[in-house]
């Protein structure tokens, strides 16, 4: 990332960009985030819906990145005129087979709350989880549905009855904003499915170290 920022400074390429990078190494998902794009790691876990006594698999939030901003709606960026590169967040998360990574630009997370993303995931993958079928064929449709829902809400600008994460963030800053915020919407959905990762997890479980949280220091 630092090398890319230096090249931008050298070439004087106009514009700027946030950055979101991820790498899976065994059972460790490394996530580097600069700016206000975001990443969620979701894990199917049993949850009993309201009014039911039958638990179902539902995507629990294992990890959610935080925005980096200079001030409201001004994210950290890298570019030819953005000055010294701010330090990105780098988080390592312990994952296992079946976990999902949802990475998206701010046009998604400005318009969709985390629980709305979880509901879309559950709607697309719930049947496969219940039947034990592979979820891989559903991932493209899942990413498309998240994008379309974010765009649908983003188009409802100035609608007073539409509450969005961006509107709540604006309100917390003392700014008046209602409705959606139409912006770039890109989503990448990844599935942890490496057998090697499960084997590594098994070895780590035998080393006597307690696994009390999802983060690796």
Q: What is the compact description of this entry?
A:
Helix content is 31%, strand content 27%. It has helices at 2-11, 106-109, 114-131, 139-154, 165-172, 195-205, and strands at residues 16-17, 19-25, 28-34, 38-47, 56-64, 69-71, 74-75, 78-79, 89-94, 100-104, 187-191. Strand 4 (38-47) and strand 5 form a beta hairpin.
Percentage of residues in DSSP E strands: 25-35%
Structural class, judged by helices and strands? alpha+beta
How is the largest sheet built, in terms of strand order?
A: 5-4-10-11
**Number of beta strands:** 11
Rg (C-alpha, Å): 19 Å
State the shape.
Answer: globular
Low-confidence stretches: 205-217
Q: How does the SSE layout of this entry go?
A:
Blueprint: H1 2-11, E1 16-17, E2 19-25, E3 28-34, E4 38-47, E5 56-64, E6 69-71, E7 74-75, E8 78-79, E9 89-94, E10 100-104, H2 106-109, H3 114-131, H4 139-154, H5 165-172, E11 187-191, H6 195-205
Antiparallel strand pairs: 1-8, 2-3, 3-9, 4-5, 4-10, 6-7, 10-11
Helix pairs in contact: 3-4
